Amino acid sequence: MEEPKVIAHRGYSALFRENTWSAFERALYAGADMVELDLVLTKDEKIFVNHNLSIGTVPVRDMLLEEAMSLIPGSMELEEVLGWADQKGMGLYLDIKDRDMIDILTDILKDFGRNTEVVVSSSDDFPFMKKFKEKNNHVLTALLFRNLLPPEEMVGLAKKYWGDIIHPCWEDKHPRPHTLISREDIEHMRSEGYKVVCWHEEREEELKELITKGFWGITTNEPLLLKRMIRSKFPASPSK
């Protein structure tokens, strides 16, 4: 069984402000394999890294990039993150919040993602993700599932909408969400050619259950905790 990738949810967001350089740099230091970040579009058609479509009461679409960045210390635009990730070897898991950026993002990613692993998702808007995949065949796409569905149904939707990754977002569906999906479920989806990524989880007891289920990646606000737990479960071989 392969180690799951550690996907730092908005960076090391348990300790640092989400979607900022501090959170990303500390996720790198903690040993995360990928950083998940959120993308919104500014008035001057730049892609700004921020979870919400507004800062306070003002929509980001009504701000210039420089103005948006001045309001959040340590914030950044996407192209800066791409350069950093390429230099550091950090994978990126991009969550599109503003659908109008599809052509701008396509242009930015046209020569990127071939050496650095890049995944793109967009809530649970599957038709949008298919449209994105048509324009960006070299980029992995993830379909986020908010509702509880059997693996066969998720596979069917992934085939229909050209997804590469099945990403259940079930952290709020049960007090012990690991019980909602089995190793057999994940193995079925993997046998159909799909990677499976887990919702974000920070509780140690839950992470213990999730690590050996066969996920391709686990998202978390606590990348250092998860990395340490994976290392204890998957110790390096003597030859390494």
Topology:
Blueprint: E1 5-9, H1 21-30, E2 34-41, E3 47-49, E4 54-55, E5 58-59, H2 65-71, H3 78-88, E6 91-96, H4 102-109, E7 118-121, H5 126-135, E8 140-145, H6 151-160, E9 165-168, H7 183-191, E10 195-200, H8 204-211, E11 217-220, H9 223-233
Parallel strand pairs: 1-2, 1-11, 2-6, 6-7, 7-8, 8-9, 9-10, 10-11
Antiparallel strand pairs: 2-3, 4-5
Helix pairs in contact: 6-7, 8-9
Walk me through this protein's architecture.
There is one protein chain. This protein is an alpha/beta fold and 240 residues long. It has one domain (5-233): TIM Barrel (Alpha-Beta Barrel). The protein has helices at residues 21-30, 65-71, 78-88, 102-109, 126-135, 151-160, 183-191, 204-211, 223-233; strands at 5-9, 34-41, 47-49, 54-55, 58-59, 91-96, 118-121, 140-145, 165-168, 195-200, 217-220. The protein has an eight-stranded parallel barrel with strand order 1-2-6-7-8-9-10-11, surrounded by six helices. It starts with a strand and ends in a 7-residue tail after the last helix.
